[in-house]
């Protein structure tokens, strides 16, 4: 009897321990991974655009970030948001006043970082418009690549952000310095080096990511010694991802795309994507640089079935490479909510229109 009681007690304890271990494993899986510049996690998520421009243009005007976005993103199984921001949201474009910051607006960025911590989502802060440069119009009054005043202001803004988030662990927040640079490599390396040194003078251990050259598409091997990660893009070929995009004049009269596709006299398919958009970045990885896809997706004029096939080929390649990604965007023309596609049957989701097929595809990879 005593032996039987001992065995029952031992078995119960073992089951309890297994259950506890299972619970602990589940808890551990909900903790954000610890990133390193040489090995970025396979973060998966979205760009949120509240600070993308200053003003009220576009589907997501400047204003506070929405906690519901973080909640939905987490509930759907994702763990990353990139915040492409214009410094015009908290400072004037007038170079004479570049260092005068609007604390009220910056607190809205603080709130987004807090939402990320609360919902276990990594927040990547990006200056889409930095003093002296933006890939989008209007042009900045001074040129970041050649003007020291612009560079000094850019360093000032990043040092300020470094001070705001000093002490926050890298698993919660990271910096992505300049969106989609278009300049020569020597000028880019000079600017990035100054920004990295400025940030590390305040917060030596902050995780820093830099976009590749040629609008994020070309890895920069000579930045490997700075111990920063690098961010690539998933928009090639452009005639599929940006079909009928109003801001790309060269595609104004492009024929309706298919996938696979021919563009610029090249046949594009999964094999082409691997050769052009994966293999060069794998070489960078071998130099000890972590890689993440900061932006990608298909504009809402691309036929939906074409977009999904195109997206799936990218997703398969990135999963195989071990790279994470951030779809442009969450709500809007590239996203899964309120994308305004003419050929999608949407599902109502708490006042939004959800592209359920695209969400399911993203969750798969």
UniProtKB/TrEMBL annotation:
List the Pfam families hit by this protein, alphabetically: Cellulase
Report the InterPro entries cross-referenced here: GH, Glyco_hydro_5, Glycosyl_hydrolase_5
UniProt keyword annotation of Hydrolase present: yes
Q: Does the keyword RNA-binding apply?
A: no
Superkingdom to which the source organism belongs = Bacteria
Gene3D superfamilies named in the record:
Glycosidases
- Give residue ranges for domain Glycoside hydrolase family: 67-330
**Keywords attached to this entry:** Carbohydrate metabolism, Cellulose degradation, Glycosidase, Hydrolase, Polysaccharide degradation
Regarding protein family, the annotation reads: Belongs to the glycosyl hydrolase 5 (cellulase A) family.
What protein name is recorded for this chain? Cellulase family glycosylhydrolase
| Organism encoding this protein | Spirosoma liriopis
Q: What is the lineage of its organism?
A: Bacteria, Pseudomonadati, Bacteroidota, Cytophagia, Cytophagales
């Amino acid at each position: 009897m005593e032996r039987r009681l001992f065995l029952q007690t031992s078995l119960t304890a073992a089951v309890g321990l297994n259950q506890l271990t299972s619970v602990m494993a589940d808890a551990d899986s909900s903790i954000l991974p610890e990133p390193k510049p040489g090995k970025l996690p396979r973060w998966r998520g979205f760009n949120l655009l509240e600070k993308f421009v200053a003003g009220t243009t576009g589907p997501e005007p400047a204003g506070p970030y929405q906690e519901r976005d973080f909640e939905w993103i987490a509930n759907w199984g994702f763990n990353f948001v990139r915040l492409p921001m214009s410094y015009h949201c908290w400072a004037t474009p007038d170079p004479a006043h570049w260092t005068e910051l609007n604390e009220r607006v910056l607190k809205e960025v603080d709130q987004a970082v807090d939402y990320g911590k609360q919902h276990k989502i990594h927040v990547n802060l990006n200056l889409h418009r930095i003093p002296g440069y933006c890939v989008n119009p209007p042009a900045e009054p001074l040129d970041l690549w050649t003007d020291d005043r612009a560079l000094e202001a850019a360093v000032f803004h990043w040092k300020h952000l470094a001070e705001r988030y000093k002490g926050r662990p890298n698993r919660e927040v990271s910096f992505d310095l300049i969106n989609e640079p278009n300049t020569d490599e020597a000028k880019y390396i000079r600017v990035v080096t100054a920004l990295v040194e400025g940030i590390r003078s305040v917060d030596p251990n902050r995780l820093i990511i830099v976009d590749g050259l040629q609008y994020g598409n070309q890895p920069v091997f000579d930045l490997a010694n700075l111990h920063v990660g690098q961010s690539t893009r998933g928009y090639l070929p452009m005639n599929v991802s940006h079909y009928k995009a109003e801001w790309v004049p060269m595609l104004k009269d492009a024929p309706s795309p298919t996938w696979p596709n021919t563009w610029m006299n090249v046949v594009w398919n999964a094999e082409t994507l691997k050769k052009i958009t994966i293999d060069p970045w794998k070489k960078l990885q071998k130099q000890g640089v972590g890689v993440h896809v900061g932006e990608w997706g298909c504009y809402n004029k691309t036929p939906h079935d074409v977009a999904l096939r195109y997206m799936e080929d990218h997703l398969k390649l990135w999963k195989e490479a071990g790279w994470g990604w951030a779809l442009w965007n969450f709500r809007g023309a590239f996203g899964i909510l309120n994308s305004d596609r003419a050929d999608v049957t949407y599902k109502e989701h708490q006042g939004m229109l959800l592209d359920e097929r695209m969400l399911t595809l993203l969750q798969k990879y």
